[in-house]
């Protein structure tokens, strides 16, 4: 009985030793995500018309925004925040957005130490992304 179990254990060890490597070398090697992965949200503030449809579409009250009128009496976006601690990544807000300013994306390194850091200033994040993509060019 003991010998049988030992042999079984050894066979598993040998199989693993010479079989395909299952270890992921994250974060040095980034995983290739399935094409339909949804792990984050991105806003293009210049496309946003501050209509608020995304706010009303969200079942979890994740989004809050403020707007103001410009010199031509046109509504412009002033602030746009998302409480990502509550977000289900369901995409109802992106479907409601008439200008495609709000999108789901595949950024997955979103871990933070404090809950307050899950409240994202989407306009600041967009500026940051633009700056980093300019640096890469
Ligand atoms: S993805 Fe869903 S839960 Fe998240 S903000 Fe949009 S509507 Fe709300
Ligand atoms: S639905 Fe789209 S355009 Fe309207 S406020 Fe939300 S992000 Fe902006």
TrEMBL record:
- Any idea of its EC number? 7.1.1.-
**Binding residues for [4Fe-4S] cluster 2:** 58, 87, 90, 93
- Membrane topology classification: Peripheral membrane protein
Cofactor: binding details: Binds 2 [4Fe-4S] clusters per subunit.
Q: Which GO terms describe its molecular function?
A: 4 iron, 4 sulfur cluster binding; iron ion binding; NADH dehydrogenase (quinone) (non-electrogenic) activity; quinone binding
For the keyword NAD, the answer is: yes
Which residues take part in binding [4Fe-4S] cluster 1?
Answer: 48, 51, 54, 97
Pfam families the UniProt entry points to: Fer4_7 (PF12838)
Chief localisation class: membrane
> Record's SUPFAM superfamilies?
4Fe-4S ferredoxins
User: Which top EC class is named for this enzyme in its record?
Assistant: translocase
Highest taxon of source: Bacteria
UniProt GO cellular component terms: plasma membrane
Compartments annotated for it: namely: Cell membrane
The record's catalysed reaction(s) read: a quinone + NADH + 5 H(+)(in) = a quinol + NAD(+) + 4 H(+)(out)
The 4Fe-4S ferredoxin-type domain extends over 39-68, 78-107
Keyword entries, A-Z: 4Fe-4S, Cell membrane, Iron, Iron-sulfur, Membrane, Metal-binding, NAD, Quinone, Translocase, Ubiquinone
Question: So which cofactors does this thing need?
Answer: [4Fe-4S] cluster
Q: Which HAMAP family match?
A: NDH1_NuoI
Reported function: NDH-1 shuttles electrons from NADH, via FMN and iron-sulfur (Fe-S) centers, to quinones in the respiratory chain. The immediate electron acceptor for the enzyme in this species is believed to be ubiquinone. Couples the redox reaction to proton translocation (for every two electrons transferred, four hydrogen ions are translocated across the cytoplasmic membrane), and thus conserves the redox energy in a proton gradient.
The family database entries (NCBIfam families) matched by this protein are listed as: NuoI (TIGR01971)
Q: How does it assemble?
A: NDH-1 is composed of 14 different subunits. Subunits NuoA, H, J, K, L, M, N constitute the membrane sector of the complex.
Spell out the family assignment given in the record's similarity comment: Belongs to the complex I 23 kDa subunit family.
Q: What is this protein called?
A: NADH-quinone oxidoreductase subunit I
Give the encoding gene's name: nuoI
